[in-house]
Design a protein that fits this description.
heterotrimer, A: alpha+beta, Arc Repressor Mutant, subunit A, 2 domains, 9 helices, 16% strand, disordered N terminus, B: mainly alpha, 3-stranded antiparallel beta sheet, 7 helices, 48% helix, 7% strand, cell cycle (chains A, C), WH_DNA-bd_sf (chains A, C), chromosome partition (chains A, C)
């Protein structure tokens, strides 16, 4: 608290500030910071305060009194703002499920893994007739729909990929054998594809 | 909506009803007890005053003036039981309208007198986002998975380089050899088709073999080893081993 | 921001609810209502609270503890929200931008819509005895105070208008029933209407 001497003080007043005035300033500060759509800088707060009350001192006081409260004063970029306490976030936030749509490449890759597992990335590329980006594979991995199934004993020992129980769940399958046979989906010219 | 033509006392009134309400208020606090006749006189007086300054008046003012003058005349004559319109009821309806407008004015004033959000009281300026989107779920079903597989395969297959199908064509040499082998065992006339090789499913290959076999048969017949016969155009072509003693009869080939 | 309820209650606390649980519920309620810029309905609050704590009881407690504070809990538009105390407005408006007041015509139109809803534009004009400009209706619409409420099944199928929850919020009303009853709308002795 910087101490602007009270201009019209009772002779016995504190040298710093009139406590009633300071209390009023605290009320103003609390309401203003609450109402502002962006963090309040001390200079901005100062405009709203009685002339003899220092905005910094008010903020310091407010920081102390709101610490540990469900709504705390915090210093953020550009000034001071009220924020709900971090420990309450799980209770007050509402989780809304927004299922993602798999991109086409991911969906095709997943389908190929499902039908040809265990399968290497190179084999997937051959079956799809297009190269496969690492990100697509990683996204599928992250989604929990595929998992590594060891390595193929060929030069380079590439990872083999297969589907997970989560995959069966996602597509409502009891087992992989519930998938329609490949021949029902595409007429393959020759069985030369079982890479 | 006040037109620029409305000057003087009409300035600031939002139409005839507004003026009437103002005049009625000046009469009495309780609108139910106002004198319609006095009200009409006052209204017409104000309008007259306005017209002296400015001749043009918006139509709705003139309509109201005419209607009020008519109403006044009806109110002044004793009620006629034959009369369809009840002047008293019309006057009461006008009073009701004025009362309703008055009530709405008061309601507006009541609203305006309240602490308003954003003026006297303030809400949280920077709301916090309470909604967390869980995007871990995947929107995909089995049909989509199967379609994806089929689409990927079809596309991959379509992308393969085109290689023309290798055809195994039955050459005349082949046909000659086959004919030579089979002719010895032939007891009687037989159709040409029987001399085609087995397992020819492709129609193109089958026709090629038929042509080669016919040429081979003609060749063989020319050498005198077999006879050919065809009864009619496009009829079956028959052949048999030539009788060793006989001379070559008429050979009618296609 | 209420006074912090004691999180570690004396062992002789009320037998009904676990006081620590109730104190936690109070924290959640305060944070939840504070975080939102729209009123929170008790049902929404209930979802965020521990199962054994009644949202109504928590609200009642929060209403009591925040009364007289610079930011108070108020009941508005069917829910509960924090609002700055009206006496602090002069200080706040020095810093926070204040929207323009609605013109008299708009206020009158709004009152008519509030009392006569759902109501057509022609009906509003009939009551006011004057035509209603498109700008007035648009201004009300833009402010979010009114909204279309279907169409009236008469020739021309004109739009019907009604007030919104935002209207209740704007004027600090719990519900439309908070509006004065028609019989209460009587003029005080000779209110001077300047013409």
């Amino acid at each position: 608290m910087s101490e602007p001497p009270d201009p019209q003080p009772a002779p016995d007043a504190l040298p710093e500030a009139d406590p009633a005035l300071f209390a009023h300033a605290l009320r103003i500060a609390e309401a203003l910071i609450f109402a502002s759509d962006r963090p309040i800088q001390p200079a901005r707060l100062q405009q709203a305060l009685p002339p003899d009350v220092d905005a910094r001192a008010v903020i310091t006081s407010l920081l102390a009194t709101t610490a540990g409260r469900p709504v705390e004063l915090v210093e953020v970029a550009g000034g001071f703002a009220f924020r709900t306490a971090a420990d309450l976030a799980p209770a007050i936030t509402k989780v809304v499920e927004v299922p993602r749509r798999l991109p086409r490449v991911a969906m095709e890759t997943l389908a190929i893994i499902a039908y040809h597992q265990p399968v290497t990335r190179a084999e997937i590329e051959e079956i799809r007739g297009a190269s496969l980006s690492q990100t697509t594979l990683e996204a599928l991995l992250e989604s929990g729909l595929i998992a590594p199934r060891g390595r193929k004993e060929v030069p380079g020992r590439p990872s083999l990929w297969g589907t997970t129980p989560r995959f069966l769940e996602q597509f409502g399958l009891k087992a992989l054998t519930d998938l329609p046979r490949r021949e029902e989906l595409v007429s393959e010219p020759a069985p030369q594809l079982s890479a | 909506m006040t037109q620029p033509v409305l000057h003087l006392r009409l300035d600031g009134f939002e139409g005839p009803l507004d003026l009437l309400l103002d005049l009625a208020r000046a009469q009495k606090v309780d609108l139910e007890k106002i004198s319609i006749i006095a009200l009409v006189d006052q209204f017409l007086a104000v309008l007259e005053q306005a017209r002296r300054v400015r001749l043009e008046l918006a139509a709705d003012w003139l309509v109201m003036a005419a209607w009020l003058a008519w109403l006044k005349s009806r109110l002044l004559v004793p009620p006629d039981p034959e009369e369809e319109v009840d002047a008293e009821a019309l006057a009461a309806a006008l009073t009701d309208r004025l009362a309703e407008l008055e009530r709405m004015r008061l309601a507006a004033a009541w609203l305006a007198g309240r602490d308003q959000l954003g003026r006297e009281v303030f809400a949280r300026g920077a709301a916090e986002q309470l909604r967390v989107e869980d995007r871990s779920g995947i929107h995909a079903d089995l049909p989509a998975l199967l379609q994806a597989y089929a689409a990927a395969r079809r596309r991959a297959l379509a992308r393969r380089p085109y290689t023309p199908k290798h055809r195994k064509l039955w050459t005349v040499q082949d046909a000659l050899a086959r004919l030579g082998r089979l002719i010895g065992a032939l007891p009687d006339w037989a159709v040409l088709h029987r001399f085609l090789p087995d397992g020819l499913t492709d129609p193109v290959e089958r026709r090629a073999a038929l042509a080669s076999t016919l040429i081979a048969a003609l060749e063989t017949a020319r050498g005198g080893a077999i006879e050919l016969q065809q009864e009619r155009a496009f009829g079956p072509i028959l052949l048999r081993r030539a009788a060793p003693s006989e001379a070559i009869p008429d050979v009618r080939a296609a």
